[in-house]
Design goal:
Radius of gyration: 18 Å
Strand content: 25-35%
Number of helices: 8
Number of strands: 12
Structural class: alpha/beta
Strand order of the largest sheet: 6-9-10-3-11-12
Helix content: 25-40%
Largest sheet: 6 strands, mixed
């Protein structure tokens, strides 16, 4: 699904990623953890194709295709979905209309006709019920006046509607109380399938109590320095990240 080899990347001439390797297969959930400034969000934005990040070396392949030269919009059409730490408010555009536009733009890019209105409404109804979203919520302006939990739930709804091949959730647990965290995590778990892959970026182990990863990776100083199962996340919670530094320097 996603294969990254020896990735080096910088922002404003400052090197952030320093030879990162990652291999994510279909059907898997990978968690990436690490201290502030390690490069977690940089990695997410680079996979999604954000222009302000410069890849100086290495390869990024999605389903065997080199996607380095593709714009963010083209990557999205190929099935890359990125949730944001701070979703943007769009007054006057309802959640439903935003989703209709996004889906039909992707279909257009794939050479397909617009989704018939009745099929779109059926899909919206099915996904909103799956994620326990009130129908009134869908008629509100996108993210305008939304609480932190509502913004994150809306992003999981977008993920459900778009059905991406690769979903990257960048600190989707940020600012959520336990109830909102459980709802968001439950939605992610329901959307996992043998045909997609999910990369969860987080500081804390608490999210991984609800979304159980197949693999946990520690990103430190621009590289993945340690990988393991969910037990690694528990170890990080107990010991912090200093022991990783000591292990590297040993």
């Amino acid at each position: 699904m996603l294969k990254i080899k020896d990735l080096h990347a910088s922002v404003e001439d400052k090197e952030i990623l320093k030879g990162l390797n990652l291999n994510v297969k279909a059907g898997e959930i990978h968690a990436i953890m690490g201290p502030n400034g390690a490069g977690k969000s940089t990695l997410a934005n680079i996979i999604a194709g954000k222009e302000e990040y410069e890849v100086t070396d290495g390869k990024i392949h999605l389903n065997g295709e080199d996607i380095e030269e593709l714009a963010a919009e083209e990557r999205a059409h190929k099935g890359v979905f990125l949730s944001f730490q701070y979703p943007v408010e769009i007054p006057g555009v309802t959640v439903t209309n935003f989703m209709k536009t996004a889906i039909n733009e992707t279909r257009k890019a794939q050479g397909l006709e617009e989704m018939p209105a009745k099929d779109m409404l059926k899909k919206i109804r099915e996904k909103s019920e799956l994620l326990e979203i009130d129908r009134k919520f869908l008629s509100r302006s996108l993210n305008e006046g939304f609480s932190g939990g509502e913004k994150k739930r809306n992003e999981i709804f977008q993920m459900a509607m778009m059905e991406p091949k690769l979903a990257i959730l960048d600190e989707t647990d940020s600012g959520l109380d336990i109830d909102a965290l459980r709802i968001v995590a439950n939605g992610v778990n329901k959307l996992k399938s043998p045909d997609n892959a999910i990369v969860v970026i987080t500081h804390y182990q608490r999210l991984l109590e609800y979304i159980v990863p197949d693999f946990v990776h520690v990103l430190y100083d621009g590289k993945i320095v340690k990988s393991g199962t969910k037990e690694l996340a528990l170890e990080l919670e107990e010991k912090g990240y200093d022991w990783i530094k000591e292990e590297i320097n040993a």
